[in-house]
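Ticket #4471: complex job returned nothing on first submit. Input attached below:
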Amino acid sequence: MIQEGKIGVFEASSLVIFMVASKALFGAVRELVEATGPSAWYTTIISGITALIGFWIIIRLMQRFPGQELVSILKTVYGRITGSLIALIICFLYIYNAASFTREFTEAVKVFEYPLTPPSFIMILILLAVIVLLYYGLETTARTTSFFTWPLIVGMISIFFLGLPLGKLTNLYPLLGHGLDRTIITGLLRSSVYGEVIGLTIILNALQGIENFKKAGKHGIIISIIIISLSLFIYSLIFPYSVSVENTIPLLTLTRIIEYGRFFQRFESIYIFIWSVAATLTTAINLYLALSIYCKTFRINDHRVLVLPLCILLFSIAIIPKDIVTITSIYVHYLRQYGWIIFIGLPLLTLIVAAVRGKKGESANA
Amino acid sequence: MDSQKQKGFLSQLRNILTYRPPKQNAFVLPELEDEGNEGNSEKTNKGDIGDKSNSDKNNKNESSSVQSKKSKKNTKKPIRASEWKQIKSEDKETKDKISANINVNLKVIKEKFHVPENIDVIIREFKLAQKVNAFIVFIDGMVNNEVINNFILRQLLNPLQFNGYTSGCINQYVREHVLAVGQTKVIDKYSDVVKQVLTGVTVLFIDGCNNCLAIETRGYEKRNIGNPVTENVVRGSQEAFTENTKTSIVQIRRLIKNEDLIHETIAINSTDNPMASIMYIKGIVNPKVVEEVKRRIKSIKTDLILGEGILAQFIEDRPFMLFPQVLATERPDRAASHILEGKVLIFSEGSPFALIVPVNFLALLHSPEDSSLRWQLGSFLRLIRLTGLLIALFIPSLYVAITNYHHEMLPTELLLAITSSRENIPFPTIVEALLMEVSFEFIREAGIRMPGLIGSTLGIIGALILGQAAVEANIVSPIMIIIVSITGLGNFTIPNYSLAFGIRLLRFFFICMAGISGFLGISIGFIIIIALSTSMKSFGVPFMSPGWPRTKKSADSIIRYPLWKQEKRPDAINSLHRQRQPQVSRGWVVDSNPNNKGGNKNDSGR
Amino acid sequence: MNQLMRKLIMVLILLTVIASCTSGCYDQREVDEMAYVMAMGFDKGTTEKLRLTLQIITFRNQEGGEQGGRQRGGQGGGQTDQITVECSALFDGINLANTILSRQINLMHAKHIVISEELARNGDVEKYISAVIRYRQIRRIMNFIVTKGKAEDFLKENQPFIGNDPPKDMQLLKKQSAYTSYIPEVKLFDFYNNVKSTMIDPIAILAGVNPEGNLAAGNLTEESLQSGQYLAGKIPREGGTKKEYFGAAVFRGAKMVGEIDGNGVKMYKMVHGLFERGYFIINDPLAPDYVISLDVRQSRKPSIEVKVTGNEPKINVEIFLEGEILAIQSRINYEDPKQSHILETTFEKIIKEHLDSLIKTCQQDFKADIFGFGRYAAFSFPTIESWEEYNWKEKFPEGKVSTKVNFVIRRTGMITKSSPIVPPIGDVQ
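Support reply: We reran it on our side without changes. The output follows.
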């Protein structure tokens, strides 16, 4: 088993926040607004509540197998080979997630700031930091993430507050967007936005107990709901529906129009820092989880050997999509639309199968 | 020869490419706490600090791995060799024993000290009580001659002193009845004799005894206690350590009058044979830390340890990181306050500094003045220092990034000012920045190396004339001068010399990152630096605690809480006694005063 | 082994650093390699479709000489100059302009986007605004201006009267708008948001070049609200710079359909709740020869209700104003609570008249909902589909608007009791 060290609730929550809430800094906001119109801000609350229910299922699963992390549970429930296969699917999902994240950030940053820089150069820069983080393992990744959590939250909230005076309440109408049915269905499907919280089950042993796991997951999801919902709220408050579906990097566009006199403007400098830090750390966390699953599936003792190959794999996957629209509307879109099958469906299925097959963890370890 | 080299190269190449499992030699600080003190302590997240069972496991693992290594060695090496080694060492031990024959002793001692070539070593032969052959050995200049003349030789030569002697070991009698010196010790090994003599002790050999007496006569010239040079304060104590460890320890003892304050010495295994002293308070310090400190110091095998700076480099956890992992201080009051927090103090002969371990990042930003000032002012000073650090770290790189990549981030007027000032500058911004930063480093280094009076004028000349001339000659833009000087100022606010140095170097790293890709580069660089520092540990304590990993809230981190609110010792250090004062430390606020009974309820001492 | 490893690592690091320093800085541009555009002007071209004018900072001081090393950075700003090219599209024009400039044209700090009236009336704004909005260098906080006459001419006159800092001058337009309320504050994103919106029609700041002959012509007209009835370029004045901003251009969709004068802008701001302050001059209700000056502010946001019933939406607008007396020429004691209501009702009536006439113009002549009543109408629609089906912009001209104005005099300035000046002896009427 790999040595993962120990992390606390705060660090674990910040892992979740970075995995989930940093999506608000990318094109995902635009996509949700396009799907549901001005009702996007509560659509995501619906998604979040769904995700909390999903998380409750995960907790039940974890309580059934105390002291075991997801991979070993999968192995116990489905048997060694099937369990490993399922674990590898999740592993690939995380790599895929990390890759699409990296590429999306690369493309976005190319659009806005570095039009002449080749994408591979930006990606290599990001991977440089990712390699350092992964090399030192979970503890360092989690601590670094928690270091940047307050800057992320404070930065985003301050952007929201600065943008608030520009908003017009009337932009939130028609209140139901494209209709309540569409809003709710989108909300349910989009619960996969919060699905990455399942990653906590993989590093359960580092979390020192299921109580901490519960707390970290809940805090992470709720703070993420607040951040994402607020960003959608402010975004649709400022831009009318017809404009809000246009912007490539919604929150950046929002930040750029904030202006308080001649000096207090150009707040996107805050944004760019938050943005690049969030992209790098999110890639690192996703990749670490993939790494952890892989190591646990094949019982590899030292994760450091895998860091470089995995980063090269990530790079190769990330370089495949041909343009920015392919990433946002195909890669990311399908991930968000059907990710819940893995993130919520899998734990539920596992729980049912475990109940049917009568598998249970040793309660002595609890 | 050639083929050998090739083979060497190939094996080297193979070594690079093949995987070797990492050596797990990290020291994990176990969490120890005396029971009952904090029985009701809530469960909080302790970051990486392991609980007992885990550390036990680790220890087991380590010990088993050590065993396996030993067994491997045993199987590989022929048995005879080890036996032979043992025999040899036994032989050595018998040779090291002091003989009962004084002539043998004299010969050995002369051999050891290369007498008479070595004129510093004085061997004074005489007749004890005018009968028994004896000699004392000491090093000229290291001893107090008055003590030797008046209280050793005079007593020993006087037969009246030996009236009570009947039989038995004369050493014992001499010690108990004759010598009028405070500190004596019986030694029975030549190697110890050598060590003691070298530190200024006088050793007495008497015929017929298979041991000798080490008599404390140390008295060499030393510097008086002076003012601190590098850690100045306006308020607070104004004395500093000296090169003499003994004086320094007395200085600490004067401040902490506590019977639990322990002082231990450890001989460092190097050619110059220095002693390292460690000080701590038993019952507060985590014993594992003391053990680890001793283990590290004892394991050193080197040539020259000339004071704490060199010692620190031998015992620090991460030698490749730019930040210091030990805190060097020249102030007894600061050292004392750290000892009371549950840290260990290390003195090494030859330098007026003490090392404090374990240490975290924020302690490097503290100054002893913070606690003597009122809490609001202390907190403000710390915030200023933190800001200074951030400015010193980021301002030049931000400038480079903005002027090279992000022209949009500046207010238009400022951008136009920068542009027009750069209009006639021949260099790219990054070259300009590096040029100015490097010349600033020149001024600094030259100012330190120059003799006192010239040094301070040089700083002014360098900063004023050079800056002015460079601007006049259109070599650099005036804005660059501002940037460089504010960076320098920011750097000077950092109270710890090593940390300030680390920041100075990191600045160049960030300038390069900014030159490569602007804000993105700075962010990536910052993430890397944070990752490196959060993974760093100083004697088992995470360097970035108490923030990352988050431990229990510290009342003395960036914001310094009022002293009466600082009830706990820092959590990350895992001291045995976490409570440093009761919840109500100012008894007077709750003492029932008949005049205003109950009036103070809101102001109870927490 | 270790040594070789270290050497290898060193070589690798060195290579990376060198590689990234030489080839890595793809987007690296020094500030002094840029030509900063302060304002862009769009005119209808004569040979091509578009005539683009770029006002660029030149860093030449007043004498026209190059700023030497001695005076670096002193002024901060610097003179501007403009380049005009005929081109088929915006980026074509920028490229063309760059052929005469050694430095790369940079639009990041542009403050004004100026469109000529001709272009706006043709509906060509639509073509160019999409390019402007999409381009990464454009910040959407630049002022959106429609100019009478040619944008080229306007930019030629776009120099500050005070100081030597054109960008500062252009950015202070916002303050100017807040202070006088004769011009609206319209940023590019305001304009764009409103153009795209189905609930509101956009306006733009109206600007023009003053020929400085208006004062001599002396065609001042008596009206109940003096000084607000002008349009840009028509103000009777002398001195100052020739450029001026006054009034607003009204768009239906992306096509300019008309202008509103300074008073109209005040009304516009009141309905939007953006009215910060403005001076009003009204005829004295008791002494018609005299005028009364008022400093008026909005006491709270207006209340707007839109009832959507059938084809004729009912719109109720209520505006809350408060004011301070600046001058009473007749020295009648209007401060007295008994008399102050006379002033208040008179003022309410005048504002209501103006408001009604502006709304009527918008409904009948412009057919453009510049007040954004559509936003309030949207409250009644649950979904985007039902709203779009209703087609507000068709319905707005038929809407029945009822307005109400509340005005209270809160303060009276430094005098609380007006009394007539005793006329000199022998001059008694």
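The interface with chain B takes residues 1, 4-5, 8, 17, 20-21, 24-25, 27-32, 34, 36, 57, 59, 66-69, 72-73, 75-78, 106, 108-109, 111, 137, 139, 165, 167-168, 171 of chain C (CB under 8 Å). Closing as resolved unless it happens again.
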